[in-house]
Amino acid sequence: MAPLLDRLGRPVEDLRLSVTDRCNLRCRYCMPREVFGPDHAFLPRSELLSFEELSRLARVFVGLGVRKLRLTGGEPLLRHDLPDLVAQLAVIPGLEDVALTTNGVLLRRDAAALAAAGLRRITVSLDALDDATFQQLADTKAPVGTVLDGIEAAREAGLDPVKVNCVLQRGVNDDQIEALAGWARDTGVTLRFIEFMDVGTTNGWVRDRMVPAEEVAQRIGASWPIEPVEPDRPADVAERFRYLDGAGEVGIIASVSRPFCDTCTRARLSAVGELYTCLFAAKGTDLRELLRSGATDTDLAATVAAVWGARTDRASELRAEAGLTGPRVEMSYIGG
């Protein structure tokens, strides 16, 4: 079967599947409490796609070329019985990889069950190693040790090496670069630094708070010499660097200073079944209505193919000096 390509020649190979819009943290670059406070109206549980609906859509996407799937949120571990969904997804013929991104707070509870269900990889968000900075960034009373223990639980369950993502903001946690890199080298996790992005419209993004990838690489290299590593595939978003002393590698996702729209192969599904073709899109295409109105898999595949085939998204390449303009979906809604 010929690959499904968008109008810029990019295939659909990766699917990010949000299972909830809820989260147990209030990280300021994602879900600031003044917006997502006690009165915020999260999605009613009855509107969320069931595990069977999520699995059915995943099969449709795999039939169109998707080979890697990542479960996101919100915080996906807030979705009850999530290992049951992983078990359904892990046996889809043609799907090569099932991964999950989490803040790690509930990972000690769920790591073993997720691994047993067929989860292959896990990424944990961690923006600081000390309690004061971590709690300020995540707007939580939970100690950072809870996340560190969750990472250890994932490793004990066989989800190793664990990947750790850190969103850097100048004047907020850029003093953590060397500490996080040293910790990752010592513990054997794979660390990825991410440039602060203007996802959504509520996280207060300004370019001056973005720490560019070049600076991050220079600072790490000043402590431990590094060299570039070739990507495993063109769609990989992280620029990888190998430590010359053999202590693993570190990555940097430079979506602002060096955008990679031309190799983007990611589709995203919200927890209510909306298909988004870009992290910075304003709206998605409703697939839930099709699902619940008797559409066949052929009907669903045709709709997805039409949406992807018309795709021309390259928001990061078009970002102005002051950032993106206009309405954009919030990161917590489609999982980043």
Radius of gyration: 19 Å
Report the uncertain regions.
none
Name of the CATH class: Alpha Beta
How many separate structural domains? 1
Helix-and-strand structural type: alpha/beta
Shape assignment: globular
State the order of secondary-structure elements, H for helix, E for strand: EHEHEHEHHEHEHEEEEEEHHHH
Strand order of the largest sheet: 7-8-9-6-5-4-3-2-1-10-11-12
The average pLDDT value, as a whole number, equals 95
Question: How much helix is in the residues?
Answer: 25-40%
* Proportion of strand residues: 15-25%
Number of strands: 12
Separate helix tally: 11
Q: Largest sheet at a glance?
A: 12 strands, mixed
CATH architectural designation? Alpha-Beta Barrel
Task: Spell out the CATH superfamily.
Answer: Aldolase class I
Q: How many angstroms separate the termini?
A: 30 Å
Fill in the CATH topology.
TIM Barrel
Could you characterize the architecture of this molecule?
With about 325 residues, this protein is of the alpha/beta class. The protein has a single domain (about 15-335), classed as Aldolase class I (TIM Barrel, Alpha-Beta Barrel). Helix content is about 30%, strand content about 15%. It contains eleven helices and twelve strands. The protein has helices at about 50-65, 80-90, 105-115, 130-140, 145-155, 175-185, 215-225, 290, 295-310, 315-320, 330-335, and strands at about 15-20, 70, 95-100, 120-125, 165-170, 190-195, 225-230, 240-245, 250-255, 265-270, 275, 285. A twelve-stranded mixed beta sheet has the order 7-8-9-6-5-4-3-2-1-10-11-12. Helix 1 (about 50-65) packs across helix 9. It is globular and about 60 Å long. The relative contact order is 0.16. The mean pLDDT is about 95.
